[in-house]
Amino acid sequence: MENKPKKLALIATQGTLDWAYPPFILATAAAAMDWEVGIFFTFYGLPLLKKEINATVSPASNPAMPMKMPFGPEGFRNFNWPMPNMLMGNMPGFEAMATSMMKKTFKDKGVATVQELRDMAVEMDVRMIGCQMTMDVFGFKKEEFIEEAEIGGAATFLEFAADANISLFV
Amino acid sequence: MSDIKAVQTLDTSGLSCPLPVVKTKKAINGIAIGEILEMIATDPGSIPDMEAWARQTGHELLESHDEGSKYRFFIKKTH
């Protein structure tokens, strides 16, 4: 065992359901390897610190998203529905449908929810820093966030990241 | 089959990345140094992941078995 643990510094900038995953997956996996982990939540990533995560996914912003049915016979499931995403993205209720389809698919495949992963990250002492400037701009209050969240700015994160082995902007 | 005597078995069947690794870490925290944890997974990614996890944490991956639909690991807690 080395004396000094490796260090991972992440910046989470996206708040959609699909993009909420990578920072929490990487953070929990790194923490499970005894690494020191910090995540800076900024811009659209900031709501991931809210007590309840209400992330959704929209095919409109993900033109390559495979549209596969999470139910039905195997052939039906494996079929990649040639949905014109730009069109479907503009259909009322389609985002809600895409979100629930993705959640169901993830659940069926044994993928934890974003909230579960965040709970694990908290439990493993992942440092979570919410961006003060984003709070001011979008009108968030510290009380809306989980207790473990600390509030800071770019300098707070950069000081943490200064000696990180890996720094990623997600 | 293995002669290794594990003090605990963790079954992560059906769970995807990063849960097998995260749950293994949690289980390792709960056993004593020198004791062995048996971990079962169905995630094919758990083979390279458990090897990497063991290298990074320093715990000893004694054996890994590919049993077709299941993967079985024996990990010794070293510190």
Lay out the secondary structure.
The complex is a heterodimer of chains A (170) and B (79).
Chain A: E1 7-12, H1 17-32, E2 36-41, H2 74-78, H3 85-89, H4 94-108, H5 114-123, E3 127-131, H6 132-138, E4 150-152, H7 154-161, E5 166-169
Parallel strand pairs in A: 1-2, 1-5, 2-3, 3-4
Helix pairs in contact in A: 1-5
Chain B: E1 8-11, H1 19-29, E2 36-41, H2 46-57, E3 60-66, E4 71-76
Parallel strand pairs in B: 1-2
Antiparallel strand pairs in B: 2-4, 3-4
Percent helix among the residues of chain B?
Answer: 25-40%
Give, in spatial order, the strands making up the sheet with the most strands of chain B. Answer: 1-2-4-3
Helical content of chain A (DSSP H or I, runs of 4+): 25-40%
Shape of chain B: globular
User: What are the segments of chain B in which pLDDT stays under 50 over at least 5 consecutive residues?
Assistant: none
Strand content of chain A: 5-15%
Order of helices and strands of chain B: EHEHEE
Global mean pLDDT of chain A: 91
Shape of chain A: globular
Given the structure, what is the number of helices of chain B? 2
The strand order across the widest sheet of chain A is: 4-3-2-1-5
Largest sheet of chain A: 5 strands, parallel
- What is the typical, i.e. mean, pLDDT of chain B? 96
Tell me the β content of chain B.
Answer: 25-35%
Q: For the largest interface in this structure, which chains are involved and how many residues does each contribute?
A: A-B, 17 and 20 residues
Distance between the termini of chain B: 27 Å
Number of strands of chain A: 5
